[in-house]
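Morning!

As promised:
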Amino acid sequence: MKLTINRIIAGLLVLAGLASSGWLLYYHHFTRLPSEDGGWTVSQNARYTADRANNLPGAFYDRNGTLLSSTIQVPVEPEPEDSGASGADTPDVQSVADGIYNRSSVSSGIEPEASAPTDGSDALQDRSGAWTGGFFSALLAYIKGVPTPSEATAEEEPAAEQSSPAPEVQDGVKTVSVRHIEDAYDETMACILSPSSSSSLERRYETELINGNFAGINTEYQEGDSFILTIDAGLQNAIHETLQSVFAQKGLFKGGAVLLDREGRVLAMVSLPAYSGNAYFDGDTVRQQSDLIRDRTNQLYWNQTMYARNYGSACKPITALSILRSGIDQRYTEVGSVVIGGTAINCVYGHTHDGRQLTLDTAMRDSSNTYFAQKLVEAGGALAAETASSLLLDEDQSISMDFGSIQSSYSFSSDAELALCGFGQGGFTVSPLQLAMTYLAIANGDLYQPYLIQAQVQPDGTIRSETVPTVLAEDVITEEERAALKGALLCSGDNYNLSNESSSFRICAKSGTAQSHITVNGMQLATHNIVMSSYFPADDPQYSLVVFACEDTSTSHYGSELAEAVRSIADLVVNSAE
Amino acid sequence: MTTPRKLPLFLMLLLIGAIPPLLFQYQTQSSMGSVWLLGLFLGLFGICLCITLPALPAVACCVTALLAFGVSNSLARQFVNCDGSLSALDSRFVRSFQLLLILMIALCAVFFLLPYLLGHSTLLRLFREALCSPIFVLGVCNGVCLAIYLALILFGTAAKDGARVSLFGVTPLELVKVLVLFQLAVAVPGRRSPLYGPPMGCLLWGFHSLILLFCFKEMGTVLVLALVYMILLFWAHARRMAVAFAIALALALFAVFWVGIFLMKYREANPEGYQTLPGLLQSLQNAVASYMGRVDVVNAAAGGDNQIALARNAIARAGLFWGYTNLGYLPAGDTDMALAGSIECFGILTGVLIILIAILLCVRLWLAVPVGGKRTPLEGLQIAIAAMFSAQTLLMIGGPLGLIPLTGMTLPFVSRGTTSDLLFCGSILLFALCSALQALEHTPQMKGVVT
């Protein structure tokens, strides 16, 4: 038979077809792994497929030493042909994996919280010997000033060992590494850690975490650094649950909360709807996420806290600052509606009183739009822009975080637009995170850089680097201005019943409701963005809390409805600190 | 070539092939088991026919089997919900399904009618004139291509990556691909006109590739055309140029891959700067990043840049003999990811079956080319069509399996797409026409009519 070009190519095609079929059978069936949902998965990428049994990459811990996210080793054995979509046929593999996943509590019917480490000693055990007790004890002492794990009682140690057995990698058994988000952690935060997020802490610090590259270009994997976050896992979860409950009651869909301490540490950062990194491989979850993304505005849900929107009257304290600095008369005879530069400004709060005399305090309490619009125009655009700029709220000054950056804008080109900025509409957009920073500055005078990474720790347990609080703008608000704003915000907070008789501390707060719109399938829908910004305790401000819900298409909710959530979270935070 | 005496047998086989999809259409509330049985039955049916029948009817059977798999997958993905329950069938898909049935029947019918049609000398003369005329090949074909480019740029609908590839619901770039193939096949042998020859082929390939690449981000089509051109050069005995082109192509692919790697790094180092890069570079980065195994769940959920990772997971979820009941996990599971989607629906062995049938289709096409050393345009056209099917099949088998970077094309006849199915069927018909013309050339009464 003559060897012509067509016969050669046909022969090559047959070889290619057989090779592809063989590859398909072998790689996708006989080497697949049990996934966490009881189904199957394959090795995802070079990072997962790399056989790194002896190299334990870095992990994430919260500020109390609770393990949040780790890379685990999963042993893999060839599966029998008849093992279907259930892990029940492979008890050995699954049981080993369960142990390493720290999911033994789930399979034995114990609530996941029971297995959540509560102090540094558990986290120490979870790392399977990768840490030294001395290091972690020192770190805990450094962060919290609490007794070290070595001082913990002898009864606690065996329990910790039992809940998190060390991975046993036997000779001849292939292992793969999988990033696992611990049950102890809020699912929302998992997205900040998960490599599946397009921007995440893990992506940002992947070189440090595995001392190499996840893309598989550098295959020389070595043990990497670990990170200790400023996040408090307990608070994060509690706030998450509170918000879920409030949102479910009120029919809200999208929103979140940010909690900062007085030096800019992010103690909690919650976004709803929540999103689970571990559920990535679950088909239904991905489908639902996909549908949500398509149906809504294609925003990344876990990123809500960093996305700038109009948040309405919660921005009035910034306007109040301009009014204070201008030295103009703060008294005002209220009108229900006023036209500025051809634009009608209305008091939409529902209880306008034409002819009533307002001061800054009462205007803040009653959230008078006309007051802040007219007074800001009177104070002048230059002063308003200067004030916004001093708080880094103009769009030229984005604030970089550990991942991504926070955007905001304060722009106007006419008196009408300036008036809209006066009550947080128009060209004044801000992210909840930056709103929390601003309220901290209003409370304490200094504008702090928010941050999530407390410390980076080397494999041998020594601290490689540590973040110190950074003041972005010192004394940006004077003591007199702070006192005036505190009075106004206390009036406002009391108006929402945030400081009742049973409270041990008072809360300075301001709500906001911004009218906005989103585009869905080419149609514009009217929405409300609602927020409650606060700092507390009013007498000795330690925390700033912003709770918000956005893109509410029912347009039937207002910022004041979040007061209850703010009060309960504030109580939780203060009690937790005590 | 089929002869009239085989007509009853072939009609019977055609009926057997068409009945299961017809039944399936009226069983929209059936269980996944019948979907799986449909695919399995037709796959075995196709393989049996391929082995027993002559080349061209075997090709038709392969096409029928692949179409059946594709339609079954598409239907299953449409009416099997995430939770495994069934929903009503979208009328759009019923129409699409009916269209494909008509296509299958028409394709097979034409195979039988072809010998009678070819007996009419006017048709032969017209086709011969077309092949011999540089005005037609260079003028009309390029004119149509340019008109399509212009129409797409002016009136096209942008896809997710911003490229305007859809025009009033159809994707005319599939037609461009066939038209360029036609030109290459006629031009590369260099016998019909002084204008023709390998350099003209290179010029045509380069011209269209530049437009396809920079205006429409069609990296896959450019690659397929390059492979076709390279094979045509080998066939036309332009060996030095073929080797040089092959080396240049390999180097270019290597360089493009590393540019993609560099862009991955650049994206991480400077996300803001990356967003300002041209769309083509971003598409390249996406393809390479996806191949390198980057996982981006948010983009993936929206059908984004980690399709390979999702495809491989979808495949893993399927059993050896059965599919995964909760479909909808895999974006583009019935178009770009048709192979992975079919495996998710019907199981891994069905995937193996699809691969083998698709490869068999290409093999039978290649073996049906009577390479006689004359290097006629008819032969060139057959080689070009066989090369196009082979290249596209290999790319779309290797892509979802993670063996090569994904190029975002369709797996012939398995992927859902009316335009691509029509064009693939048209290509097969063109192939059959060339084959018939070559066979008739050897008959005493037709000798000299076709050269």
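The first strand of chain B starts at residue 157 and ends at 158.

Hope this helps with the figure draft.
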